[in-house]
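Quick one: structure for this chain?
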Amino acid sequence: MSIQRAITAAVAGLASAAVMAAAANAQSQIRDEEIESMVREFAEPIIESAGLRPEDVRTYLIGDPSMNAFVTGGQNIFLHTGIIVASERPIELKGVIAHETGHIKGAHLARQGEGQRAATLPMIVSMAAGIAAVAAGEGAAGAAILGSSQQFAMLEYFQYTQGQESAADQAAVTFLERTGQSGVGLISFFDRFRAQEIFSESRRFPYFRSHPLSSNRVEALRSRVADQPHADAVDPPDQIKLLERAQAKIHGFLDPAQSTFYRYPESDTSTNAVYARSIAFHKVGMLDKSISLIDELIDREPENPYFWELKGQVFYENGRANLAADPYRRAIELRPDSALFHTGLAQALVETDDDATLDEAMANVTLALRAEPNNGLAWYVRSVIHERRGETAMAQLSIAEQSYAVGNLRRAAMFAQRAQTDLEKGTPQWYRAADIVMAAANVMDPEDGRRRR
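Got it. Here's what it folds into:
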C-alpha cells in the first residue's frame, strides 16, 4: 500500500483500514513498497560491504519532515522522510545510510556509559513498542507513542561523541568504496548544512543534534574521500530517477495539498509532477481528477506497479472497493512478491461484502503473512475473513496473532484462550493458541499486562 499508516480495527466488521495522507508534522512509521524498495536497493550493498547481513538490518521510514536519521536497538535504522527529501542526489542518501551503518558496525550505542544506557532503555522500549504497533496495524497507539515527548527526549540521549562520528564517517567511506561508490555525497550533504555547526542546540536540525558536526571532522572526511579510487563515481541515472520519484510521492502524501500544487504546478507535465498532483487531488477528495491523472501515468508507464497500486488505493479510500480490486491485481502481476500489495487486494476484496471473493482474499492475505509474519493489518484482515465464514475460533486466533505482534500481550492471551476453547484439541491451531498464551505469560508484567523490560 502507498504511504500508509494502519489504524486500529475492531474484531467485528471491517473498519477503514488505512490512513494514507498523514499530517505533515505527524510522527509515525509509514509503509510504502516503492520507497522501501528504493531504500533497500541503496542500503543492501552498503550493509553487505560492512560484513552485516541485510536481512538482519531493519530500515524504518518515519513520516516526519524534519531531517533526521538514527539507529536504535542494535541493527535498526530509522530514516525520516525529511532526510530523503533533503537529499539532492542518491549518493547523499547513501552516505547517510552508510554513516548509520558505521554506527551499527562500531556498536556505538552499546558503548555508551552504563548510566546513560540505563536512562535510555525505557525510551528505547517505548519507541520500539510504537514502531511495532504501527507496523502491525495498531497505528493509533503507535503514533501516540512515537509522538510522545519520550521520543524527543530519547534523541537527546543519542548524542554520539565526535570520535564516534568521525569513526562512522570513515567507515561509511570504506563501505561505499567497497561497493564502487563515492563518499562525496556525505561531504556535500554536510557542506550544505555547515551552518548547523554555529547554531544553538535548540535551532539545529534533529540530525545534527545527535550527530554534531565539526570542521575538523568534515575536513578529515574530505581528505579521505579524495584519496579513494572511486572518488569521482557518479549516481546511475536509474537511481536518480528512483529518488526523484520517491521525493514527489512524499511531497504528494505528506505535504499540504496546496504546497504540492505550488511545488508541482499544472504547467509541469513531468511524470513526477503528475504523480504528486494525482495524490494531492486524492487528498482533497477530488476523485475524478485524481483517477484521470493516475490513468495518464499508467498510459505513460503501463508496467509500473506503483501506479496501479495507487489507483487501487484511491478507489478503496473513496469507498469504491469494487473498483479497487482489479488495479491491485494488476500491481501484483507486475510485482508478485509485495506483501503490501497482497494485503491491499485482500482488504479491497473483503470490503466488497461479496462472500464469493473470500477465497481470493484469504489466498492473498496468506501470501502477505508468509512474507511478513508480523504484519498486523494482514492478521486483522484474516480475522475478518474467518468471521465472515463463521470460523469464530480462527478469527479469535488471528486477533491473538495481531495482538502478540504489537506487544499487547494481555489482549493476545485473552483471544488465544478464547480460541482454544473452540479449537479442536491437538490441532496445529490449538497448539499455536497455547503457545501464545504461554509466551505471553512468560514475558508479561502481571500488574499491567505489558511486556517486561
